[in-house]
User: Fold this.
Amino acid sequence: MSDQQLEAIGSYVKSHLPEWLAELAPERRPMTITDPALLERIVRVEESLSHQRELMSQGFAAMEKRFEQVDKRFEQVDKRFEEMREDMNARFEAVDKRFEEMREDMNARFEAVDKRFEAVDQRFESMDKRFESMDKRFEDMREDMNKRFQEMRTDMDARFRTTNRMIMAFFALVTVITTVVQFV
Assistant:
């Protein structure tokens, strides 16, 4: 198509457009308002809507500040939990170290006792049965102590799991509260 043909089509559409619009349903035609009371009321409604928009903007700004405060609080809580976790880890490491030292000390003592018994066995072979029963008692004590240490370790593991579950439940609660606050 040439430019002249396009201009001819454009002028044809311009000249017939008002007729075509008049043929449309009355609700689709542009509305003209001549009543001054209606115009005044429209202006008041627009002003009211503008004021409402400003109030909503202020409300959103206030909510944003609240959310920032809540975020800061959550960060503080996270920091406190991290500090508590680090402190608990340090304490449990200290307890583990003490148990290890006690075990090594007891092992050293048992070894010393075993050496003494060997020396006594060499001197008094007639008392072998008696010393064997004592060795048996020491072994039972060692097993009992190992069993107690295992029970303590199992108990400590259970407490760690409970603490971890409590921390996870708290974070889930915090997430729920955050979600609720966002929708409120």
Notes: The chain has a mean pLDDT of 86. Residues 36-123 form the longest helix (88 residues). Residues 1-31 form one domain.
